[in-house]
Structure prediction request, 149 residues.
Amino acid sequence: MTDPRLLVFDLDGTLVPTMEDYADKAASLMEAALVHLALKLWILTAVSVYGTICLTAFARSFKRRPVLVTKEELIVRAGLLWTVRIPREAVVCESPGTICDLRLPPLAEPNVVLRLGKPVVAHGLYGRTRRVSTIGLSMDDPAAFRAAL
Prediction:
């Protein structure tokens, strides 16, 4: 059961892997395993399997960790890449096209750009941090997201 005071918004759904993507990964993994086994390079097979698992988890994390809007704050999460906690009163929505300190997801064109009253710290993978004052988001439903702010 979800909290009624919590609004959930997804980042661009076109980035979520499809069944075709999983089939491609499986075929690539099988090919790598056969080549590595034929060449007796067992360690490369293990690295290929591990890499496939990590990439799959990374791709799925965008759907599993959406952007959250609460009464007090906006929690911007882009999968495993970045998490930014922003007080609601610090957020100002504006149109796309502005240069952003942080673009989420990284390869997507933002359709919502958040300008912040004061810089906040974005926490990234492996303990990385970055101070940001503008965040570009590619949202599935930008109109509903703007209305929620």
In short: Strands lie at 7-9, 67-69, 73-78, 82-87, 91-94, 102-104, 112-124, 129-137. The chain has a mean pLDDT of 80.
